[in-house]
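re: ur msg from earlier - yeah i can do the zinc ion complex, just paste it... oh wait u already did. ok heres what im feeding in:
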Amino acid sequence: MADHPIMECIERAAPLIESGATIHQKFTCLACGSRQTMAEANKFFTRGKCEECGHITNIEAQGCNYLVMWGKKTRPEDESPKH
Ligand SMILES: [Zn+2]
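and the outut:
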């Protein structure tokens, strides 16, 4: 899977997040080549630590991609009762 410049990913993901999608940033570890997915949703990081080898990849230089998940809208503000 090809990676894209991080700014491009952020620009494309923003309207999806606004529409209720959940985004997880993905990147490829420069050291071992394993595919990594960020645990934190709807956030883009400029650096990512590989869970396999611990190498920190410069995502800003390397590029990234993202996982889009549609489905239940579980936005925290929708779950709590309104007062
Ligand atoms: Zn690695």
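cool cool. The longest strand covers residues 22-28. ping me if u need the other ligands too
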